[in-house]
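Give me structure tokens for this 211-residue protein.
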Amino acid sequence: MSAPATTLRVALSMRVMRWPENGEAFDGISHDWIVRLGSWGWTPLLVPNGVGDGPAYLDAFAADVLLLTGGDDLGRMPDRDRMERSLLEHALSTGLPVFGVCRGLQLINDRFGGRLTPIPGHVATSHAVAVSEPAAAVYGPRLTVNSFHALGIRPDGLGRGLEPFARDEDGWIEGVRLPDRPLAAVMWHPERLDAPAGDRAMIAAVAAARP
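Here you go.
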């Protein structure tokens, strides 16, 4: 049974970063995520990229939802790619709910055979998106969202089986769900300024859909 929305345990994937002086690699997470989840009454659980068995580590957390965070284009950080792919596969096989953010949506789209396309004018800005049902019941039919991505998803680049629920004014896909499975993802950042108020309810709804 899913935990109540007020007590969700959220497993967060992490960025790979390098110390400029010597190139030492380390994992990182924006304070924005910790603050945002805390303001929602949820518990953040950090999943390092260097842990040997990611799925077992995830199981030990007894997480209510796996949240694939943003940052780092696919292919630039192989350790992170491997870890997040293994976590996503484990979640899909066990029914653990998944919510993807920006890179997380891109990773999910890639997993289902989709492709990414360079998109201009979507870094460090905000723009309008149109939202369709069932997500419109949470967000409303139209939103203004933050935007920090240089790669986007055209309709003909959407992965097999994924259903879009948010698009920008030029038709680029900004939100997807996997029908009949506890999985959804958005291209905007719920942890940053100008995030929609409905993000908390959306993530909670995905977590509550666990079989």
